[in-house]
Amino acid sequence: MRKSGFFLALALSLVTATPVVAQMDVEDQINTRQSAFTFAAWNMGKIKSQAIDGDVAYNEQQMLAAANAIASVANSGLGALFGPGTAMDKNDNTKLKPEFFDKPEKAREVAIGFAQAATKLQEVAANGGDKAALAAQFSEVGKSCKACHDEFRAE
Ligand code: HEC
After folding, report:
1. Residue nearest to atom 1 of ligand 1 (CA)
2. Are the C-beta atoms of 148 and 114 separated by less than 8 Å?
3. Is the distance from the beta carbon of residue 124 to the nearest atom of ligand 1 less than 6 Å?
4. Ligand 1 contact via 69 beta carbon (within 6 Å)
5. In the list 33, 56, 96, 97, which could disulfide-bond 49, CB 3.0-4.6 Å?
């Protein structure tokens, strides 16, 4: 009895549960997305130091860890942190332009661009110590960050 009740509940939850967590309030969405981007930028900085600038010795494991972290951010479902009412027309502590909500197609495009570039970065890093290939894909990820910032982040 208990067991079948459990499986029924599980089956129902698989069908009906679209949101994975309860919607966060506006303040938490803003803080969490800012932290996520800061964390991604910290990891981009590691790759820049080792694969581009060369001011830190190249370490394949550290590059993979950084690429994994960036890909995790990009593929985490960040869209959930861009809910209605979270732009700068309604809040002082954010740089999200309100245009974000008028251009859903563009928002999708830049988000997908980021996810694809970051996933490829992870693949390149996982494929071994090719520093030049990592540097090239790092630059592609950087472009995907900029594509979104140019469109939706205020100066
Ligand atoms: C889909 C759009 C988008 C992508 C892709 C994106 N960003 Fe951002 N980023 C934003 C927006 C919007 C803000 C402003 C968020 C806010 O203030 O609420 C921001 C803010 C930031 C901040 C400041 C965080 C803070 O505390 O205010 C940093 C740093 C940053 N992004 C780095 C990056 C890096 C590095 C990448 C790529 C690896 C990246 N972003 C990709 C849209 C994006």
Report:
1. 111
2. yes
3. no
4. no
5. 56
Residue 121 Cβ contacting ligand 1 at under 6 Å:
no
Res 18: pLDDT: 58
In short, whether 96's Cβ falls inside 6 Å of ligand 1 is: yes
Which two structure tokens, joined as six digits, stand for 151?
Answer: 């469109």
Q: Average pLDDT per run of 10 along the chain, which is 155 residues long?
A: 48 50 90 98 98 97 98 96 97 98 97 98 93 98 98 97
Q: Which pair of tokens denotes residue 38?
A: 């800061």
Burial of 31 (0-12, 13-18, 19+ CB in 10 A): middle
- 93, two tokens: 């502590």
Q: How many CB atoms lie within 10 A of CB 40?
A: 22
Backbone region of residue 58 per phi and psi (left: phi > 0; alpha: psi in -120 to 50; beta: other values) = beta
